[in-house]
Amino acid sequence: MVRNMDELKKLQPVVMKQIQTIYEKNRMAHAYIFDGEKGTGKKDVMTFFIKLLLCENVSENVPCETCRNCLRIDSGNHPNIRQIEPDGQFIKIDQVRDLMTEMTMKAVEEGRKIYVLHHADKLNTASANMLLKFLEEPDGEVTAILLTEQIQSILPTIRSRCQHIKFAKIPRLMLIEALVEKGVTHTMASTVSMVTNELETACFLANDEQFAHARKTVLKLVEIVRKNVHEAMLVVHEDWLSTFKEKSDMEQALDLLLFAYRDIVAIKANQEAACAYPDMLQTFKEIALHTTYERLSAQMQAILQARQQLQRNMNRTLLMEQLMLNLQEGYTFV
Questions:
Q1: 160: Cβ–Cβ under 8 A, 6 or more apart, which residues?
Q2: CA–CA distance, 277 with 259 (Å, rounded to integer)
């Protein structure tokens, strides 16, 4: 999805201001790292930045979108731009060597040369060291843009020679709106937007029958555990453990459970609060009425502790039985 200027400013207001200020004040660095999760607009902002650097008719720090350079950037045919993707698992030394050779040769056209490394965290040791030499001694008017979702995997020596541009997560309300526009119900959009910040993954989850069943199973447990711990144990054995067989499934289920108790806390503080489970509003209001903030805090801590114990490979049946006891304590129902 290619985003326009207004969408980019809404999605990444700080990053867009930072980039336009760099251009306005002519404070160009020779290398940048665009660091952010998948779906945060790194590629679209990169394209905007390149256009800003090469556009023939920039106005008020915005590229014209109609000049020869802007159109060639859109078509991927600008001779002064080179983009590198990992070749298999890594960006290999031959790819970087060819890139450096190309960047040091006389440009086909005058002006700045730009190279982009997608998934820059996939540089292997040899290719990273070769890139490092070029970053230490840039040749002429050359700008590097490194895109990554895993900045900690990039060599510290490379990071220190690049200006870091940090991309924020997509605003949750913006993600919900985008999902609703794609036909997802507001209820399901509200839930999946808590699980992932990436639109494509959120769309998949929203239309996944297995995720819908997981959501239903978690909410069934929330309703039952407050009333009868023995029935909750039955749900754990008959529904929960058979549904969440894999460790990753159990992790996600505990996260969904935690979101439910966060909703209850939010509703207790403000009955108009935006929730992960808006379809559970009346039930959660009732639960909130009969418990305290202290107890809700203890219940959320119990869920977090269960998640930690899962990582330590604790027996899952025992883990869930203990969690049910911890969650059920403290209610004032008669």
A1: none
A2: 8
**Cα distance between residue 296 and residue 275, in whole Å:** 16
Model pTM score: 0.74
Q: Residue 141 corresponds to which amino acid?
A: E
- The separation between the first and the last C-alpha atoms of the chain, rounded to the nearest angstrom, is 54
Q: What pLDDT, in 10s, does the model give residues 47-97? A: 999 999 999 999 999 999 999 999 999 999 999 999 999 999 999 999 999
Instruction: Return d(Cα 84, Cα 99) in angstroms, integer.
Output: 8
Give the residue carrying structure tokens 């997802």.
184
Structure token digits, residue 236: 């754990």
**Contact partners, residue 88, CB within 8 Å, separation at least 6:** none
Closest Cα to residue 50, out of 25, 11, 23? Answer: 23
DSSP strand pairing (81-84 vs 163-166): unpaired
Q: For residue 66, how far is the Cα from the chain centroid? A: 32
Distance CA 277, CA 283 (A): 10
Q: Which H helix or E strand runs over 265?
A: helix 247-269
